[in-house]
Amino acid sequence: MAHRVETNGITLAYEDTGGDGAAVIFTHGLGGSANGWLAQLEACRERGWRGIAYDQRGAGRSEKPAGPYSVTTWAEDLVGLLEGLGIERAALVGHSVGCMVAERAAVALGTRARALALCGGALGWKPEAKPVFEERVRQARAGRLDEIAELVASTGLSERCRHDDPRLLGLMRELIVSNDAAAYAECSAATAVATMDRPGEVVCPVLAFCGSEDPVTPPAASAEIAEAVPDGRTGVVAGAAHWCMIESPEATNRVLFGFLENIG
């Protein structure tokens, strides 16, 4: 069941495993929600850690104020979430544009960020991504989320997964279609111009990883992130695409928690 907290002028909804263990905060990407991290929350619970996954401004069960949104505002929301929950120090985990959000929050938090794990992230989008996001804005404003869902599923899940697990393919489509169309348009516009900011100032250990079949942010993008931060490393989830934490949760957890368990 979702909890709610007031921060940065809005209400954010979040899932919380509770407990007094080390805190790990999960930030989703465009079209996602806290529900995309349920397997990772369970892994936190098994370890006695406090796992928190929240719905960003404009997504899921969180408030959806009028735009424009920005990656800067989302990062401020993330820092505000920690403040609102009284969390002094935490590991931050992001997916896709959520990686840009988490990286900016890590810079703002300084030593309060214990670690930073970036799944399917990039320092910035390739130039060819701009018209893709612009088209998503137009489609969302026209209420054509079903068309967006088909495209997201084609890059979010590997071809093998789409063929072998039609159930998951259907759930992925439904996840995108369930978004509020106006808010999704604002989120797409913000995502289109999102970048990481001052990665050289991230003081905590960083893991940049992705699915080996990720066509959106391939392993080369993870390598660029790892090279841009002072203490970076990479990882790969074999056989998975952009939404590897949903497609291959066990393999994703091996990569992610192998990192989190071995930092100071």
Quantity of strands, as a count? 8
Beta fraction: 15-25%
What's the pLDDT, averaged over the residues?
A: 97
C-alpha Rg, in Å?
A: 17 Å
Determine the CATH topology.
Answer: Rossmann fold
Structural class given helices, strands, pairing? alpha/beta
For the largest beta sheet, what order do the strands appear in spatially?
1-2-4-3-5-6-7-8
The CATH H-level superfamily is Alpha/Beta hydrolase fold, catalytic domain
CATH architecture name: 3-Layer(aba) Sandwich
Q: How does this structure look, described?
A:
This protein has 264 residues and is of the alpha/beta class. It has one domain: 3-Layer(aba) Sandwich (Rossmann fold), CATH 3.40.50.1820. Helices cover 45% and strands 18% of the residues. It is built from 11 helices and 8 strands. It has helices at residues 38-47, 71-85, 97-109, 129-141, 145-156, 159-164, 166-177, 181-192, 219-228, 244-247, 249-260, and strands at residues 3-7, 10-16, 23-27, 50-54, 90-95, 113-119, 206-211, 232-237. It has an 8-stranded mixed sheet, with helices on both faces. Strand 7 (206-211), helix 9 (219-228) and strand 8 (232-237) form a beta-alpha-beta unit. Helix 2 packs across helix 3 (97-109), helix 4 packs antiparallel against helix 8 and helix 5 packs across helix 7 (166-177). The protein is globular and about 45 Å long. The chain starts with a strand and ends with a helix. The model has no long low-confidence stretch (mean pLDDT 97).
